[in-house]
Amino acid sequence: MPRLYPFKALRPDKKYVEKVSAKSTDFPLKDDLVREIQNNPHTFHHVTKSHLRYSGSYQSPEKFLPFASNYIKSMKNAGVLINESEDSFYLYEQVFKNGNSIKGIIGLYAVEDYRNNTIKKHEEIRPNRLQYLVELFKTARVLGEPTLLAFKGGISLDKYSKESIFSFESPDGKKHHVSKISSIDDINKLSKEFEQIDSFYIADGHHRSASAEKFNHSSSKFQNDKTMCFVLAEDQLEIKPFHRLIKPVLSINKDVLITKLSNNFKVFRSYESLYDVKEQGSFGLYIDNEWYHLSYKNKNSDLLDVEIIEDYIVKNVFGILDSRTDSQIAFHPYTNGEKEMCDLVNKGIYRIALTNKPCDFSDVRQISDSNKTLPPKSTYIEPKLRSGMIIQEF
What we know:
Elements: E1 4-5, E2 10-12, H1 17-20, H2 30-39, H3 45-48, H4 61-77, E3 81-83, E4 89-95, E5 101-110, H5 111-115, E6 119-120, H6 127-140, E7 142-143, E8 147-151, E9 163-169, E10 175-181, H7 184-195, E11 200-204, H8 206-218, E12 226-233, E13 238-240, E14 242-246, H9 254-261, E15 265-270, E16 282-287, E17 290-296, H10 305-315, E18 329-333, H11 338-346, E19 352-356, H12 361-369, E20 380-382, E21 392-393
Parallel strand pairs: 6-11, 8-12
Antiparallel strand pairs: 1-5, 2-3, 4-5, 4-10, 5-12, 7-21, 8-11, 9-10, 13-20, 14-18, 14-19, 15-17, 16-17, 16-19
Helix pairs in contact: 4-6, 6-8
């Protein structure tokens, strides 16, 4: 069974937390990010998006990652980032605009537990992203966003003594509250509660966890045998889909595409949007300003929808054998909205969009327990934490 460990976090002083914490996913336009980096010397995007300060190639991380390292040093020297003096667990609560909230614990897990598969994964990763994060860890020596781990069951967190560190509201209207649990008795009790859990499941952060393992394997001179995580009960998760955007190397007209798809799907025109797919085994195809409904013919299949779309459309129809590395395919987070996705197709940036119903977390557990993996970007899971709120130093 995995263990959870307290640690001395590096974090923003409460006067600066709103300026330091940065959106970690679903980024705005590149120009907006560049503008933020130019106008906000405190934003943690100076670490996560340091390539935007460099005029050369993104393929040369050794040239721009020193910007990330210098940011950490300068923010510590200025008192913007401060070190906690005692080992603590960090209680994090996120309150959404609709009033719903989630609550969990930020701590460390042992890389060895990841290797032993008591920290269970379900999704394939992109090699270039993995290597980039390893180089970031080596250079900046920080991890600014925890891996999101979920478990089946529940733990009462309100019974522990805690000290508020900061509270703030981010531009997206979410409220963030962080407190620390630092008494030795409470740390021991909370640790023992987590020790009763058989497995943690990676809900979000497959690249961060894999990179931390590779970083530990390749750079043993650092104190990097543990890595930061945010742990919460799985019933607090909200799972949404990533939709697929495809621009094939060879152009394909709509009628030919529909004929090919008809081998495995019933295809018919839809006069309603299929951005939100509600039924299992059903998919949306957006092409030439029109929606088509795809219904998988094999009703006895054990495959999940993300596996069907990968095997019978992405690979079989378009010949994209590795979604992790092929430039013909991109992934559209559900929260970015239908208009953005359709505009990318209407403007010819991509030829088609494919939509599907999201997995349930029980599906994720089943895949993980079977030591299988899903295609990349199979799940878009809330909550998303902002980068730079709680930071682990290596």
